[in-house]
Design brief:
7 strands, about 45% helix, single chain, Rossmann fold, alpha/beta, globular
């Protein structure tokens, strides 16, 4: 099984840069799974800046909706950027966010290659003043919790500085065998 790392942070916190450094291929190409859609000129320019900044060494897959499918199709190291934009896309297209997050978690947990996931920590601000924004914030928080539960490592980035919330310990083991393996030997 591949190692799963979740990188959280606020807007412009440095989380994507940190995640790219963790996932950057050493000699080979990694897959960059981008969730953004160029819905206007500003977003198109933002996407272009991101592509230019990350440079060569990445195979890019655009997956604004079927993120689980893109991860399942990937063969080597992967970077997903980002869950926050993906959730917004799902809501905009009327998709079942909880079902899609569960599907993604299942695929990521079974990935054979390392997966680095970028997501915003959206619950640190004020309570939004409208129902749609509150639903988005709730979906975001629930997705982060589910992804953190399957991740081997969780890092919060603030002001460009990483804070390890959950550190990987030894070889990756999951499921019943992992729980049994942690017990005392007779």
């Amino acid at each position: 099984m591949g190692r799963v790392t979740l990188v959280l942070g606020g807007a412009r916190s440095g989380k994507s840069r940190h995640a790219e450094a963790l996932a950057r291929p050493r000699g080979g190409k990694a897959t960059y799974i981008a969730t953004a859609e160029a819905t206007d000129d500003e977003m198109a320019a933002r996407i272009a800046r991101h592509r230019e900044a990350r440079g060569m060494g990445w195979h890019t897959i655009e997956a604004p909706l079927d993120l689980a499918g893109a991860v399942a199709a990937g063969g080597g190291p992967m970077l997903i950027d980002c869950i926050t934009v993906w959730i917004g896309n799902l809501m905009h297209h009327g998709r079942d966010v909880a079902a899609e997050v569960a599907r993604l978690c299942d695929v990521v947990a079974r990935a054979r290659a390392p997966v680095v996931i970028v997501s915003n920590e959206a619950g640190l601000g004020i309570v939004p003043d409208n129902a749609m924004a509150r639903r988005f914030r709730d979906h975001q928080g629930e997705a982060n919790q589910k992804l953190a539960a399957i991740a081997d490592e969780v890092i919060l980035v603030a002001a460009g500085l990483p804070l390890h919330l959950k550190k990987a310990q030894g070889p990756r083991r999951r499921g019943r065998a992992a729980r049994i393996g942690r017990g005392r030997k007779a």
